[in-house]
Amino acid sequence: MSLQPALLPLPLIVVLWALVLVTPVLAWVLSALLVGGESETRWRRAALPVGRTVGVTLAAVVLARLLEAASGAMQDGPLGWLHALDKALTGHTSRTWYPLDAVLMLALAHAVLFLVAAPILALRERNRRGEPFRVPLASPLAVALVGVPVLSLVALHGPYLQDRPGRVLLDLASVLPMVCVALAVWTRSERAAPVVISTAVAAKPVTPVEVAALWQRAGAVEGRARPLLATPGVVASGGAVDGASRAWQVAGGSGPAPRALEDVSAAWSEPRQGWLVGDLPDPTERHFLAACLVRALQREGLTCLVVADAPEALRDAVEEAFARLGRWPPGALVAGAGELRDALVGHRMPAAVFLDVEGLSSEGIAALGGASDGCGRLWARSVGLVLLSQVDRGTPLATTHRMFTLRRLGLALSSAGARWGVLATGVGGVGTRSLVEGMFPGFPVREVPYAPRAAAPVRAWRVAPGFRDAPGTPWVRRALEPVTAAGLPASVGDPGGAFDRSAAEFWGRDVRFTRDVSLSGAASVADLGEAWLVAAYRALPHLAPLPAGGAHDALWSLPDTPLVRFLLRDSNLEGLARNGMLPPPRPLVGRHNGALATAHLKAALREGTQDYAALAAVFGRSRVDAALGQDFRAERHAVRRATGQDEVVRSPVIPALPSAAGHGGPLRRTVSEQVVHIIDGQGGQPLLEVDKLLVDTRFYPGRVFAVGDARYEVPLNAYDTKRGEIRVHPVPHDRPLTRPQLQIRVESASVVESPQTVHVGRASYQVTTVEATVVERVTGFMQVGRPGRVDMGEVTCRYRTRVRALLFPSGGTPAALFHLARSADGVLLAHLLAGDEDIEVVPVQPGLYAGAPAGVAVVDRHLQGMGVAEAMDLSLIDDTFKWVRALLAGCGCAHGCPVCTPQDVLDAGPDKAGVLELLG
Fold first, then answer.
1. How many domains does one find in the chain?
2. Is the pLDDT of residue 200 over 50?
3. For the chain, which terminus, N or C, has the lower number of CB atoms within 10 Å?
4. Region of residue 497 (phi > 0: left; psi between -120 and 50: alpha; otherwise: beta)
């Protein structure tokens, strides 16, 4: 046989091969016309029949070989049947058919079969939901498959020129190009239909249960009470199921994804940016973070570092989301400092790491900075997104520790060469946004509205005082008993730490406990202060739809104060929100607290090699110089470009300092290292820690305080100065808490911020910040909810802190200043995430500093200050005075009454008219 490659002319061969290669694309178009669905998902669904048609094509090859083996007329493979066909058509066999001709004829036959089979399979796909799938390394595999036909032609060129090439080889050459193109289309497809998880046992029809009726029968809600607050919910509008909505649904959310998920995921490819999403209740916040992680890991391929109070729970939620998606995570999901250490020592590169602040501070940052063994520095370089959950939760001390810890994290990531963005959740507003910007200096933070497309209706009820104060079992447990007995899921939200976790433990029942505004399940209970009432109100419209539908009922315990009565009267909450006067409460963070900053600076020096200029930018040049000492001499320098500048600077490099043996981490529970321990005198376990300078007025004799839902009393002469501890005694749950008769004097003030005069309407006042010595005196206490007081021997303490002074040049009577101070103190509880022992507003007489008039002072009751002065900017001061004016002017009394005025002001003599005159 001649070595002529083919009988057909070259142009015809090129045209035929083009038709063969374009056949899968034509089949894809036909499938898209028949498979149906939305325009955004039709092409992905149509690719599935194209992939399945590959099996039909390969089955045809096998069938042809079986027929050849059974029939003598089809011997000699494709060349044999071509000769037989030629003889049947022309009556002779003068034409010479070559292997390449046989390959093209076979390819055309298979192309016709492909075009017929793909639409048939598309019709079957039209009304079917198949199982989701994921092709590993889909993009590289698709590129490789497209290149296979070209490589196959080169590899099979020699056999084409042989006289009798193998029959199977001819079959392979005929179907390989078309099959490879079809598989390339299939690898890029993605199942768009939502996953339906089947259950072995059919769900029983659920009878609607009226939660409010259960609470009314139990006495938790008064018989004819109406909801305090109610939201109508948001009904989901129809639309395509896009990638964001699919990630939202597999993360546990219902309905379409909120707009915030789309806005954030479209922007986080740009490094050195920050985004804040506020006002998210639990479980919306949990669903949102899990959906963000699925999008970041799956679509963007970002390496993520997550900082959350419950890292294991969030990691499990992300793993469950990937399982519902039918895909594998792109790498290991590591939770906790121990798992991170094992992964980095084993030179495994996790896709995402989940840590709490303690784990990040104790081991995480050191591992990423290269101070420990493993590939931590290499992994840190790959970090592309840092997620912060509930960034502003906790006490002011905890928030300050979180800020300094994340500053150290930023130093480690910058030193490793990472380029990352930051996504945070919290109560939102200017205070939380400033906090995130303080955690990562140089990162502009943009607040992204949550903007839900679907939300559940919510009804909030107020617990009956008699039910709440009844002795015995905590009211939280009694309120949830009928709800959980009806088989409904429920939750306990405790942002202020009023309950112990044991109060929410029900054997065999679905109850979730969280230190947040919780609206999880069909019903929830919570103890909310003034600030958390505002935060909860702002979060109500953002509750994701319940899996079973319907409304969520929330039962709240609220303090009986003039401010709470004002907010809940005459729809004032709705009016303030509508007029933009209901901002989120601001967290307190001690940016200028020298003791805490020094502790974290020393930790940063032990966590790896540091850049002097970067350390000075984070902690201050003077503090860095003091920590290094006068004898420090840099052995080498680094050339770097200053952040946000084009100038290149030469900065000393500070080697990692050796860790001292037994040195504890910087996350202590006091400002100073001089600590007094509060011990349970009955069980011996430690309860609290307090700075030694503050202990006398914080734990005065006779005080009754709560730790969770347990209560303790401070006995007389309980302070053991040698051991540095106070042993307290447990008391019954119904024992009233106490409030001290506190007097505060501000002295030895030095101005740290020049006085600024503010004119608002007819009001005029000066604002300044001073560092001062604060003297506290406690001469007795009152039992909360009961009249009268108990006198005791005076106890005092003295400490240095920052004070925000609000002074009135026009003067004011002592009664008016005291009335204003006590009213402003109550109003600030709704504007700051702070407790009664964090701040105190007191009147001050003229002479606080040289030339200072009389006024009121906002005292930061923490050693060296915990950010009260910084939080009290002009905007917050103006809002505070407006609320005080509205609270007093909205009451019909002439001089002050229990509705609008604190009891201690009524006892001392109110001056409502004087306060309104000062505030204009």
1. 5
2. no
3. N
4. left
